[in-house]
Each structure stands twice: as C-alpha cells, then as structure tokens.
C-alpha cells in the first residue's frame, strides 16, 4: 500500500535559522510498512525553496553551454577544486513559473535567451535533509553568443561562461569534471536523446 502525507504526524516544529535559507527541526512519527507508528524521529530540514536548472544546447553546432563558479558547499566539503562546472540554475521566487526562472537565469548567468525550452526531468536534490525540488530543462540557444563573465553583482556572482562540443561535455561526466546533480542528469539525458532533439530543433 502506498503511503501518503496522511501517514505522517508532525508533533512539533522548531525554527532553527532564518536567513538566505530556512532551517527547522521536525519532530514526527510515520506509519511503518508493518502498519504501526514509528518512534518519534527528529530531523533538521533545510528549506531553500524549489529550483530550476537549464542545460543550454545548440542543436546546429552540437555544443553545450556550461558555467563555472565558486561553490561554498564544495569548499566546506574540502574539495580541492571548489570552482565547479555546472548548468544554469536558480530558485523559483514568489509569482514565478519554472519556465520564467529558466529564462531569467539563462540571461543572468549565461547572457543567453533560449528560443525553446523542454522539461526533461524533475527530482528532489537530497530528500533526507532538504525540501528542494528541482525541475530540469534543456534550452535551445546559439552557442556562438556564449562566453565572458556573467552573474548579478548584488549576489556577488562571478560566473565564467563557455561552450564545449557535446561529446566533450559527456566525457566530463565520466572523468569527474561534472560533479553537480543537475548537470550530471541533464548531460546523461542529452547523451541519450541528442539525435531526436537535433531533428526536432533544427
């Protein structure tokens, strides 16, 4: 039998932090597969909002546009190279649709405006500790217009934009240059669907 929200009882929520993101401590029980109720569990959950990612792709030149920027999470994880290769991404603000965010972030982070958007997946980024739900798109762009430095000054963004052949991007998944989940998922999708997408968008 599939479990639903009705199979969870929240006993208390403790606010822990209110800043750029929000964190709360939940005290809850849930119905187990055996049919009884679990002992009370306590979990801290990071609420950073829901997000959108866009893999900018040029079907004419068969190039992918990637971005590179410093990531504090990778630094805290003691990564030797905390400047990561990524795809465009951002948080959904009040009143925005995921497609609105996809277009806005492409302009802000890569200086590009996709002429087509196709949703290719959706997933929780790390459901054990954050409520973030990610919607993933591929966007049709002109890779010849990609390059330079982008990002919002008020958010202290310093983003390098570059285009690479799709095959090089796929190789970067295998050799460890791609280490973020949205980029990983988007490129694996493109590797499988590239021929169909090129026929559709050319």
CATH architecture call of the largest domain:
Alpha-Beta Complex
Q: Can you count the beta strands? A: 11
Number of domains: 2
CATH domain fold name of the largest domain = Nucleoside Triphosphate Pyrophosphohydrolase
- Which structural class fits the helix and strand makeup? alpha+beta
DSSP summary: helix tally: 4
Low-confidence spans: none
Mean pLDDT: 96
Shape: globular
Q: How widely separated are the two ends?
A: 46 Å
Percentage of residues in strands: 35-45%
Spell out the helices and strands N to C. Answer: EEEEEHEEHEEEEHH
Radius of gyration: 19 Å
CATH homologous superfamily caption of the largest domain: Nucleoside Triphosphate Pyrophosphohydrolase
Q: Tell me about the largest β-sheet.
A: 8 strands, mixed
CATH C-level class of the largest domain is Alpha Beta
Determine the fraction of residues in helical runs and give it as a percent range.
10-25%
Give your account of this protein's structure.
The chain is α+β, with helices and mostly antiparallel strands. The chain has 2 domains: 5-47, no CATH class; 51-201, Alpha-Beta Complex (Nucleoside Triphosphate Pyrophosphohydrolase). Helix content is 24%, strand content 38%. The protein contains 4 helices and 11 strands. It has helices at 72-76, 98-110, 166-175, 181-201; strands at 8-18, 22-30, 41-47, 51-58, 63-70, 83-86, 88-91, 116-124, 133-140, 149-150, 159-165. The strands form 2 sheets. Strands 4, 5, 6, 7, 8, 9, 10 and 11 form an 8-stranded mixed beta sheet that branches. The longest helix has 21 residues, at 181-201. The protein is globular and about 60 Å long. The model has no long low-confidence stretch (mean pLDDT 96).
């Amino acid at each position: 039998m599939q479990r639903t929200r009705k199979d969870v009882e929240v006993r208390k929520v403790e606010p822990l932090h209110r800043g750029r993101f929000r964190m709360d401590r939940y005290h809850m029980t849930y119905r187990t597969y055996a049919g009884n109720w679990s002992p009370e569990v306590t979990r801290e959950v990071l609420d950073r909002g829901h997000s959108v990612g866009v893999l900018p792709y040029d079907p004419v030149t068969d190039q992918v546009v990637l971005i590179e920027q410093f990531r504090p999470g990778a630094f805290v994880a003691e990564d030797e190279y905390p400047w990561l290769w990524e795809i465009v991404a951002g948080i959904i603000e009040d009143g925005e649709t995921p497609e609105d965010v996809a277009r806005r972030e492409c302009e802000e982070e890569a200086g590009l405006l996709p002429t087509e958007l196709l949703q290719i997946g959706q997933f929780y980024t790390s459901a054990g500790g954050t409520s973030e739900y990610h919607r993933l798109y591929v966007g049709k762009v002109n890779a010849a217009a990609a390059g330079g430095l982008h990002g919002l000054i008020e958010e202290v963004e310093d983003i390098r934009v570059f285009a690479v052949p799709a095959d090089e991007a796929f190789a970067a998944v295998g050799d460890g240059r791609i280490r973020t989940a949205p980029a990983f998922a988007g490129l694996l999708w493109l590797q499988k669907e590239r021929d169909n997408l090129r026929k559709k968008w050319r």
